[in-house]
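BUG: 3D viewer hangs when loading the predicted structure for this chain

Environment: internal workstation, default settings.
Expected: structure renders.
Actual: progress bar stalls at 90%.

Input used:
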Amino acid sequence: MRVLCGLACLLVACGSDPASTSAVTDEDPPPSVDPVPSPPSDPPDPPTAPDPDPSEAPAIAPEALEGAPEEGCEVGAPTRVFTGDAWVDVAATEDAFVVAGVSRLGDGEHAFAASVTPGAAPRLIARRALEADAMSGHRRAGPALAIAGSRAALLYPDGERHLVLTVFDPSGEGPLQPRSIAEGASLQFAPALAWRDQALLAAWTDQEAGGRRVFATRVTNGRAAAPVDLSPSAGGAASPTFVADTDGLRLIYVDAREATSVIHRVDASGDAYGAPEVLRAVSLLTDPPHAASVRMRGADWLVYTGIGAVATTAVGLVALTGSQPPTAVVSGTGYGVLYVGAASFGDGAVIVADVPTAAPAESPREVQLRTVDGSGGLQEPVTLRGPRGTAARVRVAVRGVDIAVAFADTDGAYVAFARCAVP
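Structure tokens produced before the viewer hung:
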């Protein structure tokens, strides 16, 4: 109880016994970011970019940091990777990082991929105009990027809700050769993507029938198997993410409901997806919910967006096993949609999140970066903005001691490199 009281100003655990969060009950609801429900705020409009020159090269290389601080994190100056109204993901290769995504340039959207290294100017791998781009303002979530050795894969929904996959060589010069592997992928939720041996595993949210369902497929030798509905028999599903360790691969998603939501896990290690498993319940997720899963000290954790004080948007961190109550990563200070990311780092993880600079939903965002130790203890954050004063739609990847933070400013996709004390 002393733990819950100490967290009361940040996260409220509903119920006197935190162990009750392992199941949904009417008498003892699970912990939440804040106990005050309210209709969700409309998401802010995406950043408005000037008409860009697609061939314009970044002016500077991203700053390379020497060494690591004794405590917390240090972040170098960012550089632009691609112009336009961008949604990105980032992943590590053996000797660099790749930032890839979809960006609106003038009247159309383009897929792109670029290689980035601390201290060197970004190198554009390839770009390609989408055959069916989303209408301006309709795309509300980023892509998924996965890399294994000399193979990189980018996954995103196009404007006709086709789930588009493109595989490329991250050390080469493209081209991007997209192919549709499924239908009905939502533009409101990021898909999930992971390599498993020689196959690609893909998962996405489908809400064309009115409800929300999570589907998944396996792509082998360029051919996608028939999609599998991984949603619970009674309920919905959204915001899938993969988390891996030496023991296997798992898919995590949320069944977001008005008050009490349920977190599910599916084993993705075998030749077929397993049955959904209920992990725990949590109260008052945002609508839409956004989440990122991460492995720390042998356990799966989830970073998620929840409803904070007076119906603001907050970000929480919760262990998916046991009865440990959630911890506030970002306390509720403003309204509108926030995006989150996480990557394993040392014995813990690096967590990134959008943070509102003021209460209104349309207020500019900045990015918050912090480490968390393997038991869920948060270190002090650092904040990051792009040259035009904003940063949003954040993602993060780790390679050794280097941490790459990818985000959108109003004029394009950016990357900054950070060094942190290992938790």
